[in-house]
């Protein structure tokens, strides 16, 4: 592979329900701290959710927060944190050569629900409808808010890819850097999902909304007592650069993206397809020039739905049977952060390149035999000694699958 085709991660910004930067997030994952709490939402009894506590005002004025969106605030916080972490001299950066590529599951539902509720208090008089509605609800909003906040004049896109979106944001950035359309990419995924009652009501109608008397034990991937999804908000955004550029400026390199793939099930609106998931993993491995046994750790997508976990376990066994590859899951800590899920799950595992530890999958008290995974890291972290390659799974509704492979950078 040509040097300019090698793309590396040089800065990380995130907010998760159990941490507002990588150090906090990683520590919570290693110490088994959940970020799931009871949460009030409109028209429903209290639900369980992963709620972020980042400071919206760190990089925005009160007016900007009021005018914009929650997804925009998540994105702005994470993007600024990533750029600062990367040590980029922003005043000297050619911002016309910066691209913003953010994965989202959905956007605009929060604002639409809120505004309809507001006019309902005025007998549905549309003269009180907010003139900010259109810029708040257009699909490119979170990425666009980042460009406004940071003065970025290069291209910006949101990538709508359901719960495969976090990986998709990274993949779009890799492609644009390799095409030399941009010199720096701000990429990842964001979600504001907990602020719309509709997502909770829909999962409840589907019989897929998690419940538990202890919020910290509600998200139970691969456990026989799992009963659904814990909805979460969050964001995970990185700066990505071509390797020569990163080396030239002496950047810290968190990892190198060496393989990726996306495909479609074409089989059902919501039920996953293990064959297509396995094909997606194999395609990513092939593009990276790797064999399954070359992967040290798989970050699973598992959402704690009955069939979803079974299908992914089936796919993982089809690809990694006979390998000693460890498997873990981050949703057990924070719930399902939708468009941010794949990004957060990858970022929480990246420090394992340095410490060799795979964080646990918590709440697997009674493993479901239908989800048999011989090397699942359950209940306690596992010291693997050396971790050089991570495969990150993210799968979404309407049968969209994404896989990203990141390798430890060793010069």
Outline:
This protein is α/β, with parallel strands linked by helices and 411 residues long.
How would you sum up the major sheet? 10 strands, mixed
Beta-strand content estimate? 15-25%
Structural class: alpha/beta
Q: List low-pLDDT spans.
A: none
Q: In the CATH hierarchy, what is the superfamily of the largest domain?
A: Thiolase/Chalcone synthase
What is the count of helical runs?
14
Q: What is the architecture of the largest domain at the second tier of CATH? A: 3-Layer(aba) Sandwich
| CATH classification, class level of the largest domain | Alpha Beta
How many strand elements? Answer: 15
SSE ordering: EHEEHHEHHHEHEHEEHEHEHEHHHEEEE
Shape: globular
What's the helical proportion of residues? 25-40%
CATH fold naming of the largest domain: Peroxisomal Thiolase, Chain A, domain 1
- Residue-averaged pLDDT: 97
Distance between the termini: 14 Å
Domain count, please report it: 2
Please give the order of strands in the largest beta sheet. Answer: 5-4-6-8-1-9-15-14-10-11
Rg, Cα atoms, Å: 20 Å
How are the elements arranged and paired?
Layout (H helix, E strand, L loop, with lengths): L6 E9 L6 H10 L4 E4 L7 E4 L11 H6 L2 H17 L11 E7 L4 H12 L12 H5 L3 H10 L5 E5 L4 H14 L5 E8 L5 H9 L25 E2 L1 E9 H6 L6 E10 L9 H15 L8 E3 L6 H15 L5 E3 L2 H4 L6 H9 L2 H4 L1 E2 L23 E2 L5 E8 L3 E8 L4
Parallel strand pairs: 3-7, 4-5, 4-6, 10-11, 10-14
Antiparallel strand pairs: 1-8, 1-9, 2-3, 6-8, 9-15, 12-13, 14-15
């Amino acid at each position: 592979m040509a040097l300019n085709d090698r793309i590396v991660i040089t800065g990380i910004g995130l907010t998760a329900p159990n941490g507002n930067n990588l150090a906090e997030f990683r520590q919570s994952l290693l110490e088994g701290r959940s970020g799931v709490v009871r949460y009030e939402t409109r028209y429903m009894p209290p639900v369980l959710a992963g709620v972020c506590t980042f400071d919206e005002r760190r990089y925005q004025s009160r007016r900007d927060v009021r005018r914009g969106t929650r997804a925009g605030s998540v994105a702005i916080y994470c993007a600024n944190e990533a750029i600062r972490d990367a040590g980029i001299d922003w005043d000297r950066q050619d911002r016309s050569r910066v691209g913003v590529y953010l994965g989202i599951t959905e956007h605009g539902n929060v604002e639409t629900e809120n505004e309809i509720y507001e006019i309902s208090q005025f007998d549905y008089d549309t003269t009180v409808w907010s003139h900010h509605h259109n810029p708040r609800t257009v699909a490119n909003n979170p990425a666009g808010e980042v460009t406004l906040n940071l003065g970025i004049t290069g291209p910006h896109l949101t990538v709508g890819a359901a719960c495969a979106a976090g990986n998709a944001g990274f993949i779009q950035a890799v492609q644009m850097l390799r095409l030399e359309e941009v010199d720096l990419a701000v990429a990842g995924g964001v979600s504001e999902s907990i602020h719309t009652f509709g997502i909770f009501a829909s999962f409840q109608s589907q019989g897929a909304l998690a419940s538990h008397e202890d919020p910290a034990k509600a998200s139970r991937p691969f456990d026989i007592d799992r009963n659904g999804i814990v909805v979460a908000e969050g964001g995970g955004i990185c700066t990505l650069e071509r390797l020569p550029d990163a080396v030239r400026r002496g950047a810290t390199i968190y990892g190198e993206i060496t393989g990726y793939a996306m495909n479609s099930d074409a089989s059902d609106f919501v039920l996953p397809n293990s064959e297509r998931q396995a094909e997606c993993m194999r395609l990513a491995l092939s593009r990276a020039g790797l064999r399954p046994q070359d992967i040290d750790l798989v970050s699973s997508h598992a959402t704690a739905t009955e069939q979803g976990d079974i299908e992914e376990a089936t796919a993982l066994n089809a690809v990694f049977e006979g390998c000693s590859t460890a498997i873990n899951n981050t949703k057990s800590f924070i719930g399902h952060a939708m468009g941010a899920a794949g990004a957060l799950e990858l970022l929480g595992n990246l420090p394992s390149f340095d410490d060799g530890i795979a964080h646990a999958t918590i709440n697997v008290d009674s493993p479901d035999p239908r989800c048999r995974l011989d090397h699942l890291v359950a209940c306690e972290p596992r010291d693997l000694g050396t971790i050089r390659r991570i495969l990150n799974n993210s799968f979404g509704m309407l049968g969209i699958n994404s896989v990203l492979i990141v390798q430890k950078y060793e010069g």
